[in-house]
Amino acid sequence: MRIEIKEVTPENLNEILGLHVKSTQTSFIETTAQCLEDAKRHHAYRPAGLYRDGELVGFAMYGLFPREGVNGRVWLDRFLIDARYQGQGLGSILLEALISHLIGLYGCKEIFLSLYPDNVHALYLYEKFGFTFNGEFDVNKERVMVKVIE
User: Fold this and answer.
1) By the 8 A CB rule, do 115 and 28 touch?
2) From 22, 49, 142, 149, which residue has the greatest number of CB atoms within 10 Å?
3) Any catalytic annotation for residue 126?
4) Is the per-residue pLDDT at 143 higher than 90?
5) pLDDT per residue over 68-107, tens digit each?
6) 95 and 79 Cβ atoms separated by less than 8 Å
7) Where are the alpha helices (DSSP H) in 50-137?
8) One of 45, 62, 85, 126 is an active-site residue; which one?
């Protein structure tokens, strides 16, 4: 299986905009269109398509926010698997690839994310990869989790 993380370009934009989570998950994450609008306003965000064997299966948005913490914070701010590809183990495969990608890109010692605690499937996945709650809340009142890179 070949996993790729590709920036959003004019060539893949429409396909990125076509990604959707299940209707029961829409309260947990913004649409890809909303994410791309956020990335226009906040230049630290880097939106990306997540590919398996050349096929777009998910989306992530991450970035280094230099004004947060001592050396800044690397955030995995958005992460979704398209509804058509959920239940195939891609969440774990792609999260592992994203963590490696972020470490390589930023040389970070910590990765931050936030979620609503009732998003039990995402919570289980993040905990499986060593993310733990740090007691903080983000601007949307989501609980902040951090993974310490060893």
Assistant:
1) yes
2) 49
3) yes
4) yes
5) 665 789 999 999 999 999 999 999 999 999 999 999 999 9
6) yes
7) 90-106, 120-128
8) 126
